[in-house]
Amino acid sequence: MVMIFIHSAQETRNGNPARRLAAGFIALGLKPGDRVGVWGHNYYEWTLVQFATAISGMIQVNINPYYQPNELRYALQKVEVSALVMPTEHKHFNYMTSLYEVVPQVAGGKPGNGSLRSRDLPDLHHIIVFGEEEPLKGAWDFNEILNGAGALDFRVLDSVESKIKPDDPVNIQYTSGTTGLPKACTLTHHNLLNNSYMTGLRANWHKEKHVICLPNPLYHTFGCVVGVLNALSHRQTCVFPSISYEVARIFDAIQEEKCTFLFGTPTMYIDLLSSPLMKQCDLSSVRGGYVAGAPCPYALGERMVNELNMRDAYVAYGSTELSPAVIMSRSDQSPLKRFENVGYVMPHCELAIVDEHGQVVPRGERGELWARGYMTMLGYWADEIGTRKDLTRDRWYHTGDTATMNEDGSVMIVGRTKEMICRGGENIYPTEIEQQIHKFPYVADVQVIGVPDDRLGEAVCAWVRLRDEFKGKISPENIIEACKGKLSPFKIPKYVLIKEEKDFPMTATGKVKKNELKVLSKELLHLGNVQSHFNE
């Protein structure tokens, strides 16, 4: 496998760097089972942490780089992270400033020394940063850890590596939680290696050589599993066009590296097709690609095939809890036929479409989609109740999506049983946003829903009822501004509607009818002609 990082002129062909970093972690005193957080975008160092933790028996914790301080604090505490690897800043976001707010002791540390003792985060012992020329207070330099191991550390690594089992946890991904707090989805070597290999097999990667363009974030499974591990399993070349998503850099990568296989969510492909740069880009090298993360409209698929040259495009469906892919197009389908549904169940996986009583429905009828197999997560870290809710004793995972299965076995996703909002491939549960807005002293009630968005699939909309003494004094803009720094940018409402109690549609038992809120919101926001990616 070859990895090319255009933004850093970095090229790597595996092997020694990951082993050196793994031994460096051991030299710091980290042990198998320890959680190592990586907080950042698509950096070369990110991939080294992924491989180093895997071969040393440690567990990588993917932390969304858009997390604000309160979200970061929760992510570190929930799974008791022992070491945090991170850049210092990217564009307008200063990671160190946010870290100082969570762990003030770091700012008072010795330059070049990342050892840490914190009362609030007693398990966090090391801060490791990259991208700085001068030593930072309270932080180890990444390159020193990479090159600091001794012979004994490598011998320990050899011993540890020989004892790793397929069902050992290797990765924790945070998913949106129905209770408002993210759930720590725990995945094993068995989950990730099988899923990555099978997704490549379905796309004929075992027969063809590709230069992959991977702009998708590594902190999601689509990037780090279907992207990186898939390329590793099938010895493909993987090109990272930029640290964070930039349309112009994707076109640059396609031209400079002659990329043949593209990755993207529907929103990313909409952006590519809408960009004036597309007409200036030589797309003749492109042969195919993956689209996942949100439902892909047929009309968008047509344009991907005809205008982006993606004659061998594959639609995939899954979730973080499924490592992630469980359904995918097949190569024996015609290019456009693949966009009529999300494909067929992956090899060695099982699907069930069931009614509200858990009984399998006849083909063609709607029901909730359940899945199980090698890809099913171990569970949610330190959350037995959440695990039992989403995962049955016989290992069926409840996706929360409504689906139908056609006579030929292909599957269509037709809606959701959960309230989750899917914005540009980011899954958001309304509860988390509602809980934050409820904290504002002027808010009496808030209800959050998803509304259609041409580009993102869905956008966040909040219905807010103000306390009597604040009526006429607080604007939607005030509420949106107050959310900044409290919620990740993708969770901040695009629309805020300030309403009276009588405006909220209620059930007889006093619950808000969120489906009716969606209908009303479309009317009030004049979104009637806007097409979501979802076929609800």
Automatic annotation (TrEMBL):
Q: Which domain of life is it from?
A: Eukaryota
User: What biological process terms from GO does the record include?
Assistant: fatty acid metabolic process
This protein's record includes keyword Secreted: no
The record's GO molecular-function terms, alphabetically, read: medium-chain fatty acid-CoA ligase activity
One Pfam assignment: AMP-binding_C
Residues in domain AMP-dependent synthetase/ligase? 18-381
Specify the protein name: AMP-binding enzyme
Gene name, per UniProt, is: Acey_s0024.g1057
